[in-house]
Amino acid sequence: MTLLEAEHVKAYYSIRNSYVKAVDDVSLSVDRGAILGLAGESGCGKSTLVNTLMMNIRPPLRLIDGTIVLDGIKISEMSRSKLKKDVWGILVSIVPQSALNALMPTKKIVDFVKDIFHYHTDMSRAEIVSMVRKRFEELNLSPEILHLYPHELSGGMKQRVVIAISTLLNPKLLIVDEPTSALDVSTQKQVIKLLVDLHRAKIIESMVFVTHDLAILRQIADKIAIMYAGKIVEVASTDDILYTPLHPYTRGLVNAVMTPESEVRKRGITFIAGEPPNLLNPPSGCRFHPRCPYAKPICKEVEPPIIEVRDDRIVACHLVESFM
Amino acid sequence: MNPFVKFLSRRAGFLVLTFITFIFIIFLLPRAIPGNPLSTLLSQLFQRAQQNPELIKAVYRQLMEEFGIGKPLHVQFFEFISRTFTGDLGTSISAYPRKVADLVFSYLPWTLGLLIPATLTSWIIGNLLGALAAYKRKTIVDNALLPVFLTLSQTPYYWLAMILLFIFAVVFKVFPIGGAYTTGRIPALTLEFALDFLHHYTLPFLSITLSAMGGWAIGMRVMAIYELRADYVSYADSLGLPDSKILRYVFRNSMLPQITGLALNFGSILGGSLITEVVFSYPGTGFLIFTSLSRLDYPMIQGTFVLLISTLLLANFIVDIAYALIDPRIKTGYTGG
Questions:
Q1: Which residues, other chains included, contact A5 with Cβ-Cβ below 8 Å and sequence gap of 6+?
Q2: ipTM of the complex
């Protein structure tokens, strides 16, 4: 059973007369109850993709093509106002990358929460307050925090408060955009634990977790999608991605992870040469070919098709058979 | 000690220090202008008392004594200080023997009546239009409004006053060329006088409102554009908060610097829109300052500036406190808590 099904999604930033192809022909699905990790380097289009998945699109970003179905509803055809009223915060919520500045600075947190949920539920403000207090207690956050201003909280606390607010109405899908990149390691752990708790308690059904940190995905994700220059290059189970990566880019990513674990350490650490391409004018054929150590002439000319190597495993690489 | 009290007392300390510095400057500057303020007064006196030269000498000595002009500067200064702190602003030279305080208070209502409504109107309209332009950025609305704001904000207010005067009072004769009411009429609470007053009021009011509006609008537009891009806006948006409510958040947060600007503006209101009042011969405090400066009326200059600076400093002080109360972030910053 899939909760979210995106097919052939193209979302481009239109800049003057050209397009930045931040999301280019991406198909992706999220199973009910699953946690999907989305990894890739900075600027590859991860944030644009997840915002597109919930149709949070504003000019200059435009949805050029593709369909997105969430919980049986074709959200790619809904108007922004309808999405705001019936979908966002209810079916799907996002924990934004900039969660540290995501709270209204001149309002107490409780007033911000009241404003948001008063406007798209039938609940009275008093009901919202008791609901959010109860939820904070469930999540081991002191309800007293609600009566503080955002600047009075630490970074990790703000991050957890934002997660609690985003999930207040038990959305089916939670999108988390690099929630830990600005936090220290011990705070990261608390945030990850909170997300896992929300998932275990079935407050949220599924989650898309965006990061460039494969080590975190190893702890929580069921499946990992690897994104490169606006395209998904490989989707597989977490173990397959980490232990038998197929796409040369995935291999590069995995090999660049520093880890103290001995079986991985033997492999040594390597880096991917070169720089991410400019999405205004991406390379021809396979977008990874200028940096790929295995590149053949065909890679420069023909865009690789998406190959289903197994039931739950897809790769977009001409040379995949030679890696298996 | 309560950090807020500490903050207040530190601010008050600065207030007193600034005030004393200002007093010193106010005292010295007019005296640096060459000329003897008594000469005009004396020449008038001279015509009347030509037959009796002795009288002139006696009056001259009496006046020098009264205004203390012949005394050494430091003596004059301490007399001025001690008088100021007892609330005595002295006697006017050019309007001798009227008291400075009485003169200022008879001119003040006209200035307040002109400037408070004009400032408030320009502030409110400017902020609303600025916010609208920011919200409609990159559309025809903003493209049309921004050049208007820029032109208005860069138009010298006195030049605008003269242009308005020329067009509407000289060429078309729709409005009178000056004064606060028709000469000879006695101010009274009658409909006839009110209409006459408004007739005279329109041009000065418009010239101040229009020239100030552009600046407010540009300030608001920039702040609102910045706020519209803030992370809390996109987060609230992604959780489904309606646009109208988000705009109110943005407006609220962009308003903070504008409130400071408004309060500081009110602080300088006593000085009037000096040249506007001169252009329209409007009997306000700005006009008073202008005439006393041109006649070197030391007590008058000192008196008006002492009042002017007191209100300015007080307004500044109130803004500091109000700001700390409105914005919780600033309160923490100020009080260190």
A1: A29, A68, A69
A2: 0.90
